[in-house]
Design goal:
InterPro entries: Class_I_gatase-like (IPR029062), GATase1-like (IPR010768). It comes from Blastopirellula retiformator. Keywords: Membrane, Transmembrane, Transmembrane helix. The chain is an alpha+beta fold. It contains 19 helices and 32 strands. The strands form seven sheets. It has a nine-stranded mixed beta sheet with strand order 17-16-15-18-19-23-22-21-20. A five-stranded mixed beta sheet has the order 5-4-3-6-7. It is 23% helix and 28% strand. The chain has five domains: 105 residues, no CATH class; 162 residues, von Willebrand factor, type A domain (Rossmann fold, 3-Layer(aba) Sandwich), CATH 3.40.50; 111 residues, Immunoglobulins (Immunoglobulin-like, Sandwich); 243 residues, Rossmann fold (3-Layer(aba) Sandwich); 97 residues, Immunoglobulins (Immunoglobulin-like). The N terminus is likely disordered.
């Protein structure tokens, strides 16, 4: 009777026939009664519908009673009480502290009421399963019950917690995981998981899509270039809910908290992201921190008084951005075959740039052939004839070129002329050769220049002139090999004497080539430029080379002017013009600095990606629920090969202005790689000063990095529950999403699901009071219908 009352009769069919020996007798008896019923009603005098209805009622009753002889049974598998495990996991992150729109209680308060151990669904779940209870924020933690539940965690390690539960019970009968969460995990970077290998996950979504009013700074990204003092663009991505039609103020603050810029957004739409861009020009070097914060217009004071705010939370109203202003100053070596105007304007353009140090070797006299007649009293170069320096030992000899050293050089630096060793040349980040023939260099120096680009990763630029490129016999030299143009099969010199310039399509895409804001302004710039007269002829462009500037000829063809390419670890460029200086001399106004800006940007391009001897990278990792920062340091020797015997120290400055020192250890047996980890415990900005030392204790290089810990910003990145993610893991794991108000109904369905450990349960389907009453009801119905219609 209880089975029938429970509804099993109506949808469960027998799958076991206990007394198969009665199948034939039951069929015979049923058939005889069926024939008798058909004979009896065929002879009766009554309407056809009445006879058919009565016959069907009596036939159904007879067949139902005849089936009892076969003993039909229902065999089922039921969970063994207490043999299977079931995990109940609760999110205790602070994102549950918000209240949804129109609600007087927070999500956490609602959840805690449902997590009460005396709740009906927990009692029923405990009757069938061995419940294992857990809470998680930045990591998973077992609990006996949820009496002390408090949503105060700074992170939501949802992915890590679910995978941890699956791993803990990998070899045990875990029937499923019931997880209470809003789905806004802070460890989505670890979400590349095969959820089909997980036990069934049943997410209970906490929270509504109708969130309370809130302004959130989702993220702040920074982009910077190496050009024109490296202006920085900060892009803030924001979302406003409940502020449609209202104005939102967005501020940019520096690392001292001083307001730099303010913008007001008036076209806010609920649930739609919008962005605000700031452009700043930092005056400091190193790692800098900027803060973007947003609030309703006129509500700035609420940031210091959360109780007076109408927003759901103020913890997501600000975000930091980290800017690395590079590791300058960069050193550039300029070598020229003769004094010229080009160096004057190059030096002038870099005079006010603290990021670039320009050293120069300018040849003021060539070396003389050994057979040249010379004075008997002196072996000095003829430029010193009749001078007091002629008898000095340090002056250049007759077979040596006389070089003028220019720049902030230390005593003895470059005193021997162009560097002859990697130790000396590799101190520079870029090398510029101007109007200088190949024979100026020894064979070893030519190979050294190629190694400077390919192994050290330096920037190289050759300028045009009477003794550059093919005219300087660089063909079949290591220097010629790194140039982006072939010096064989040189094109014949054009007949016209003057040239204009134009950008190629590739040149328009390179920011360091552009000097003005728009394409039209660039075209105007080239139209205003004077006609140039010195253009070296070269062969074809090498594979992989890019032509950025060209000179249009009168016959409709073009000649390459500026060509670049990657070469090994570095980059090489060929500026085929030899009189770019005319650009400045023919300008009508003195305040036009197009040439200076072009030179600065070109130099920035040359040194922009040149590796340092020490390189540092700070990356946030996830390890056992924590979010440590892994500081990886790469150290090279003087030849820029991995250096294994370095000592690396890391000095970290915390937001509380405390300082601690870490020692980096060799990383993963990778040559020249060192690493250390640090777990930030306090929100805010962190700096790390990394210093690498030689084994003898001398310093190799000091470099700085930084990062920001913003657990609240990540936790409150969005207030809407992440339904898509929860539905995805439920579907792939074989579970389903459960509503918070339907927990009782969900638990009642668990015994009928696939469970690891079950026991068979067989019960009679037909020998029940329900079946007996149905048979009697059919017979009584047939009798009553006959009596009502007067059918004998």
């Amino acid at each position: 009777m209880s089975d029938w009352l429970g509804g099993q009769f109506w949808f469960e069919w027998p799958n076991v026939w206990a007394d198969r020996g009665w199948i034939v007798p039951a069929c015979v008896i049923g058939g005889l009664f069926l024939l008798l019923i058909l004979w009896a009603y065929s002879a009766a005098k009554a309407p056809f519908w009445l006879k058919a209805t009565c016959a069907l009622l009596k036939t159904a009753a007879v067949l139902l009673l005849a089936a009892i002889l076969v003993e039909p049974m229902r065999s089922e598998s039921k969970p063994v009480p207490g043999a299977n495990l079931f995990a109940v996991v609760a999110d205790r992150s602070q994102s549950l502290q918000v209240a949804d729109r129109g609600e007087s209680t927070t999500r956490a308060e609602k959840l805690k009421a449902e997590l009460d151990r005396s709740a009906p669904w927990q009692i029923r779940l405990g009757q069938e399963f061995d419940i294992r209870r857990y809470e998680f924020d930045r990591q998973l933690a077992p609990v006996a019950d949820f009496d002390q539940f408090a949503a105060d965690g700074e992170e939501s390690a949802l992915v890590t917690s679910l995978t941890s539960v699956a791993q803990r019970y990998e070899d045990r009968p875990l029937a499923g995981v019931l997880v209470f969460t809003d789905g806004n995990a802070t460890d989505f970077s670890d979400a590349n998981i095969d959820w089909s290998q997980s036990p069934p996950i049943f997410p209970v979504i906490v929270g509504s899509d109708r969130t309370a009013a809130d302004i959130g700074v989702r993220r702040v990204t920074a982009s910077q270039t190496n050009f024109e003092a490296a202006p920085v663009t900060l892009t803030a991505e924001l979302e406003g809910t409940g502020f449609a039609g209202q104005a939102i103020t967005v501020q940019l603050l520096d690392q001292q908290g001083e307001e730099l810029q303010t913008q007001t957004v008036t076209d806010v739409r609920d649930g739609q992201l919008f962005s605000v861009r700031f452009q700043v020009k930092p005056t400091e070097r190193g790692v800098l921190f900027y803060q973007v914060r947003a609030f309703a217009k006129g509500a700035e004071k609420t940031l210091d008084d959360p109780a007076s705010s109408s927003e759901a939370t103020l913890l997501n109203n600000q975000r930091f951005a980290v800017i690395d202003r590079g590791q300058g100053p960069y050193k550039v070596l300029y070598v020229s075959g003769r004094p010229n105007w080009e160096f004057k304007f190059l030096q002038r353009s870099l005079a006010g740039d603290d990021e670039v140090e320009l050293d120069a070797l300018v040849r003021i006299a060539k070396r003389e052939p050994k057979f040249q007649f010379r004075d008997k009293d002196s072996n000095a170069n003829r430029i010193f004839t009749n001078s007091d320096d002629a008898q000095k030992e340090q002056v250049e000899q007759y077979d040596e070129a006389v070089l003028l050293r220019i720049g902030k050089l230390e005593p003895g630096e470059l005193s021997g002329g162009f560097p002859k060793s990697a130790d000396e040349l590799f101190e520079y980040h870029a090398l510029i050769l101007d109007d200088l023939e190949a024979d100026f260099f020894t064979q070893d120096q030519k190979s050294l220049i190629q190694d400077f680009v390919s192994l050290r990763g330096g920037g190289f630029l050759m300028l045009g002139g009477m003794e550059s490129f093919a005219e300087g016999d660089f063909h079949r030299t290591p220097i010629g090999e790194l140039l982006p143009v072939y010096l064989s099969s040189v094109q014949p010199a054009p007949q016209q004497e003057e040239f204009g310039l134009q950008m190629t399509r590739e040149g328009l895409l390179e920011p360091w080539i552009r000097v003005r804001a728009t394409e039209q302004e660039e075209q105007d710039r080239f139209a205003e430029m004077p006609r140039l007269r010195s253009l070296n002829s070269v062969g074809a462009l090498k594979p992989g080379a890019t032509q950025l500037l060209a000179a249009p000829l009168d016959d409709g063809q073009t000649r390459p002017v500026l060509v670049t390419q990657r070469f090994g670890k570095g980059r090489a460029g060929a500026m085929l013009l030899g009189d770019l200086w005319r650009w400045k001399l023919h300008q009508q106004t003195t305040d036009n600095e197009d040439l200076e800006k072009a030179w600065r940007q070109t130099i920035r391009w040359l040194v922009g990606d040149v590796p340092q001897r020490v390189k540092v990278e700070a990356v946030r990792k996830r390890q056992n629920g924590a979010r440590p920062i892994e500081i990886t340091v790469a150290v090279n020797d003087e030849n820029f090969k991995p250096f294994d015997n370095a000592d690396v120290t890391i000095e970290i400055s915390t937001p509380e202005e405390e300082t601690l020192t870490l020692t980096a250890q060799p990383k993963d047996a990778v040559s020249g790689q060192y690493a250390s980890t640090y777990v930030p415990r306090t929100p805010g900005a962190y700096r790390a000063q990394v210093t690498a030392y030689n084994p003898d204790g001398s310093e190799i290089q000091q470099i700085e990095t930084g990062w920001v810990a913003e657990p609240a910003g990540e936790e409150f990145a969005t207030l809407k529950p992440n339904r898509d993610f929860l539905e995805m893991i439920a579907a792939k794991s074989g579970g389903e999403v459960v509503s918070l108000d339907r927990l009782d109904a969900f638990v009642s369905t668990l015994p009928g699901r696939e469970i690891p450990i079950v026991e068979p349960k067989i019960h009679s389907v037909w020998h029940t009071w329900g079946v007996f009453l149905l048979a009697v009801g059919l017979l009584v119905g047939e009798w009553g219908l006959r009596r009502w219609k007067g059918l004998a």
